[in-house]
């Protein structure tokens, strides 16, 4: 997307470089204000994505990029920066209020306008990323000191530790010297190593920006923090809270504005301080969702859940209130019990099954149990194209899931040498590839969304209990167990938990649906009947597994064996695998 450059002159004569993307005729204008030590370049990836729907503007703040850099520190006060923003707005959107977005110092300086009177009617909404209002911070510090509980003092100490650099930036000589020497190479390398910022994505004008921008700290920090003003606002504010921010703690950035902002949305993001460069797609999406909502368009479910001070709906205090949960194989047994348990816990539930009617029935029962929203889909989990369509439909109709339970599975019994290739295809297709498709499609959605989540894969005790009559089934479940362990390691940095649940003998329809190879169809019916009787005698209800699934999510457990036989088997697989090998040789097929 083409970037157009022009200049604006601020009231004190400073020339500011302005950059625009997308059509000026678009219904909405989004103005992006960068931080320190950056230029408008930090916004490029986000601007290009937003420009598909909005007129997007970024400008180099005075002292940075192609804008003028006055020498005096007093030329960088928040009031001067607000006058700069006013001049930019006058040029790029003289008639309509804009949606303002700020990162780091861009956010700090934008709060000045959001909480002031000069530009209040020119701003339709504000998205703040890693840059609090200095007055709110000053008040937050004072309120903690007025009520010095151990928790309050801990939060103060934690934020103070993260703010060490503010004192350092006030030192004479050393900061500019280091920016011009060691930090020229070290800073981009540090950002890459610590935050994963792509190499070469920084502003070409760094380190000059870094040296000149020190004036931002020197002109504003001490006066604003030591004499904080009362700064309320009626402008709707979305605060993005990067959870791994090394400079602005999420507790402070999330709490400080609350007493002063009438309409506040808080959105935790699994990212570091430079989220615009590492999580551009998520941020572009969140900005777009917020702008769309404020302009009167549809409200994304995740945004709705993020609103603070919203009157609570019935049942919202429940454990999974506000969550979206997907369960495959939800038409029967463990899947249905799990879907209903999440519904009772307040979640919106999507039931998917090969059988459309049974999925719809589960969705209906879930709504009777209090699920605020339900959906049902007929999907064959072993069909990659059908799973892609399913994931797309869920994304469009319900948003990104918080929990995905890959449960659909089928049984297969009999000797390995009687098992045909087609039998392997069938059992691996559903039990393994069904889980793979679910993890791949929904895992990617969760990761892109940046809000964490949980994937539960229903494996089996057969995953670690070898058996001469269950080779294909046990192999498929062992693969699910290992997939879950690997994926858990891969997704942990994104705040996505992965659990494998290993039930044991559970009284469901599976015994009657299991196929046996190497026997006649009448013999198969007999085996099914006998197995079913044994499962009934064991009488472990699927609700027990559903409880284990909720526990796995709550406690982020890696592997959860459920029934006593599953727990004992797991212990033996570690302590005495020889015993299990001996048991594996017994033919336990019910005869
Ligand atoms: P179940 O037969 O009662 O339910 C399985 C559900 O999955 C059914 O509704 C079925 O229609 C659906 N399904 C089957 N193939 C599908 C496909 N290709 N696409 C979408 N849906 C499909 O069985 P259950 O006991 O509730 O089993 C659920 C899971 O638990 C399975 O993965 C199973 O292997 C596992 N498990 C069950 C037991 C047990 O003793 N019941 C023990 C260990 C593990």
Structure explained in plain terms:
This is SDR family oxidoreductase. Pfam families: Abhydrolase_1, adh_short. InterPro entries: AB_hydrolase_1, AB_hydrolase_fold, NAD(P)-bd_dom_sf, Sc_DH/Rdtase_CS, SDR_fam. Residues 29-279 form the AB hydrolase-1 domain. GO terms for molecular function: oxidoreductase activity. With 591 residues, this protein is of the alpha/beta class. The chain has two domains: 4-306, Alpha/Beta hydrolase fold, catalytic domain (Rossmann fold, 3-Layer(aba) Sandwich), CATH 3.40.50; 324-584, NAD(P)-binding Rossmann-like Domain (Rossmann fold, 3-Layer(aba) Sandwich). The protein is built from 24 helices and 18 strands. The strands form three sheets. A nine-stranded mixed beta sheet has the order 1-2-4-3-5-6-7-8-9, sandwiched between helices. A seven-stranded parallel beta sheet has the order 12-11-10-13-15-16-18, sandwiched between helices. α4 crosses α10 (214-226) and α18 packs parallel to α19. The radius of gyration is 29 Å and the shape is elongated. It starts with a strand and ends in a 7-residue tail after the last helix. Bound molecules: nicotinamide-adenine-dinucleotide. Nicotinamide-adenine-dinucleotide binds at residues 328-329, 331-335, 353-355, 358, 379-382, 407-410, 430, 434, 458, 460, 503, 505-506, 508-510, 513, 542.
